[in-house]
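Notes, p. 3: input format for complexes.
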Amino acid sequence: MDFAGSDRHERLDGQAAFRGESPGEETADWQRDLSRAPISTKIVVAGGFGVGKTTFVGSVSEIEPLTTEALMTQASEGTDDLGPTPEKMTTTVAMDFGRITLADDLVLYLFGTPGQQRFWFMWDDLVRGAIGAVVMADTRRLEDCFPALDYFESCGFPYVVAVNHFEGTDRYEAPDVREALSVPPEAPIVIMDARERSTVLDSLLELVGHAVEVAPA
Ligand SMILES: Nc1nc2c(ncn2[C@@H]2O[C@H](COP(=O)(O)OP(=O)(O)O)[C@@H](O)[C@H]2O)c(=O)[nH]1
Ligand SMILES: [Mg+2]
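Output follows (217 residues plus magnesium ion):
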């Protein structure tokens, strides 16, 4: 783990003791309780093209993230807008897949959805069985996450908005983003950096907390 020593790490440590984090530490009673099987759940990572979904999943995945990137060809010219990320040579054609263990017995499976409109037919399948979604937003093109927001709002699916802050762009605070996106007050907004593991974990913890809060008792 590469975030030892940060404040965030200490905070996360309290909330979620990561597997293998402290090898010398005594195991607690509940950890030896074999009846306590790990709970696994699914989380969807959505957002527009180039917003950082593949980076997000790759930053936290314990397993080699499975991505199905394809070299962009002339066929996607004019469909995939490369304006803000001209260096981007690949595009995710199916999905990103990763896994992370929180709190020793909560396993999250992350599914990054392709942002391109031509793949929206997959969304109903993708969200089946998921507890919630992280909707990634880039403040340079907030409108790219409208379709994802509309989709999750329309089906009452819990989500958090993760503003992936690209350096060199204006920094916005959560209330500004909430207003610009008309995000209802109950949906958390996190300002983060998809390349920074600790901020990706923060976003996931926000989502898990939010999903638990809104889940029917
Ligand atoms: N500067 C900066 N670049 C990022 C950040 N997140 C992703 N990138 C880069 O932006 C590009 C698009 O990210 P990617 O994860 O492939 O986007 P996706 O299409 O949503 O999967 C890649 O070149 C990433 O390395 C970030 O927080 N800051
Ligand atoms: Mg991708």
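The chain has a mean pLDDT of 79.
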